[in-house]
Input
Amino acid sequence: MRLRNHLYQSINQYFQDQGFLHVHTPVLTSNDCEGGGQVFKITTSTANVASNPTGLESSTGERFQSGEYFDKPVYLTVSGQLHLEAVTNGVAKVYTFNPAFRAEKGRTRRHLSEFWMLEAEVAFIQDIHQLLDIMEDLVKHLIKSLLSSQVDDLKAYARAAKISDRSEVLESILENRFKRITFSEACDLIKTNEALNPVLEDFNREHELFLCEKLGGPVFVYNWPKVAKPFYMRQCEEDGDLVSSVDLLVPGVGELCGGGLREFNYSELEDRIGGSVELEWYLDIRQKGSAPTGGFGLGFERLIQWLVGVENIKDTIPFYRSSHECQL
Output
């Protein structure tokens, strides 16, 4: 609990010191930011399907009951990114630190239905490596902060969990730059290990952990296939089949951060959205003189899991929520 509290405070302090504005983005939203469909739909306890047998149809074509609270399907957020982008065009550097929700059925030591997400957006970014610099600087700031005042708690947890002291591991991370490789280069490395399944559109966890082990620490993988990433990622100038997207992979956990440059070409974005009424406002921003932006999201519980050495992600949050488990 003390380590979680310290990291939470350190994250906020970092962004405040860097001139970012904290924005409270909505927890209730009418869009699925990542398009994965693993969202919790909002309804009221008084909505009686039996008394409303005739389903209405929303502007997106989804059917919902007339007894529901909103006049359209509304969900618990999986990300505040799209709302942050809207604010970025007026403020330039913004971040949010909110709970997020994902209706994933996994019941492993790696899954949570409710978790906390740090998300940041910056205007006037043209090079993906500018974003990588911010991400690496943030992570190293947090490590330095832990080592400066929380070593006793790190050691106490290590003794209780019967794991090796994390202090030396964290110190070694500070000594070197994070590795940076393209998706194509990462695939070539994975091919050298015959025990791993071939890469399709994305990496599985075994691929991610192998890359960290092979390269000896955290790894940025950037310039991904367009088909593997969400609609808002900016197309690479040198290859139209790639987008300027990045994943930060860390040992023992896999993906810690995901981000990239945001597409600001109106026509390109319009083609990808495909006429979605719920995203008209997002598309409309591109017609009002928007700046090129970039940003990333970091899973807070995964951060704690990696830095502290926690095996089960459910142990990183006081009251965990996962599939079929919601006590208290």
Remarks:
- The chain is about 35% helix and 20% strand.
- The first helix runs from residue 2 to 17.
- The two ends are 18 Å apart (CA to CA).
